[in-house]
Specification:
The chain has no helices and nine strands. Helix content is 0%, strand content 44%. It is an all-beta fold. The chain has one domain. The protein starts with a strand and ends with a strand. A three-stranded antiparallel sheet has the order 2-1-7, with no helix packed on it. It comes from candidate division WOR-3 bacterium.
Amino acid sequence: MRLTVTLLLAAAAVAGAARFEKSFTFRASDFALAEQDGYALVTGDGMDVTSTPGAPQLPTLPLALGLPGPADVRSVRIEASGWRELAVEMPFPAQRQVPRATLDAVTGSAGAAA
């Protein structure tokens, strides 16, 4: 699958609008499918996962794009130029996240979560 993100910008230094285009390519080999507790667990190489409790836990890739100078984003368009569906019966449900440590408000030191 090839994902193209197009940002249309109005740059302060340039009269009118400028166009900024960035392409990302994801391949089937970037993803893994495994079984966990009777569910299909889908992971992506170097990716995070969605975390809404009970909803399917799916790979996600947060992106930060550097834009030139003072820029004013007018629109964002995301286009998938091709995709392949993965047949998954029961996707693994995202779990409620539990902190592994807490931060002591007085000392600022980390401690074990209860």
